[in-house]
Amino acid sequence: xxxxxxxxxxxxxxxxxxxxxxxxxxxxxxxxxxxxxxxxxxxxxxxxxxxxxxxxxxxxxxxxxxxxxxxxxxxxxxxxxxxxxxxxxxxxxxxxxxxxxxxxxxxxxxxxxxxxxxxxxxxxxxxxxxxxxxxxxxxxxxxxxxxxxxxxxxxxxxxxxxxxxxxxxxxxxxxxxxxxxxxxxxxxxxxxxxxxxxxxxxxxxxxxxxxxxxxxxxxxxxxx
Length: 224
Prior knowledge:
Elements: E1 2-7, E2 13-19, E3 22-29, H1 35-49, E4 59-63, H2 69-86, E5 90-93, H3 95-101, E6 108-115, E7 120-129, E8 132-135, E9 140-143, E10 156-159, H4 163-170, E11 177-179, H5 188-200
Parallel strand pairs: 1-4, 4-5, 6-10, 10-11
Antiparallel strand pairs: 1-2, 2-3, 6-7, 7-8, 7-9
Helix pairs in contact: 1-2
């Protein structure tokens, strides 16, 4: 099964091609704000380098947020266009779940947090057992000052771009937790592996294609 996967929800653009659980190729582009310019060229590049065409693919997957409003919108627009053009299955992945999946070797509760700017965080809790990730709480947007109210009471693993913000707050409390040593990049290859698991579960994902913005677009006034 050939899978095209990509993430545009944060500052890093990630595109990957998988054959089943085997990662054929993954490109990470660390150019913030250029997803709209680079996504389609990177998809074309990765397909051409592997001598694969759109009609050879079996599954398309992308992240649906939360994250950058513009990034989410761009990724979903491309994903939906590819689905219409190819008539392939499309599975959209929660960005927080992708971050938790990256830590699936940890046994226990994983608290994923993305820095949403403006003193806010996108958060979600997941249970990791036997390399399987299960969502415990719905993803939500919370104020930085309120995040302690949402943290697990038992030992947990903290991951994502918001982990440093939370760990600073936690230094004042006596809560048992661990902090992931990995970077906070959402890797498209892991999005692909997670989508493959969901595909094999044979659930109907056709009703799960709405973006997970959690917050509207940030509008700034033009300077006079």
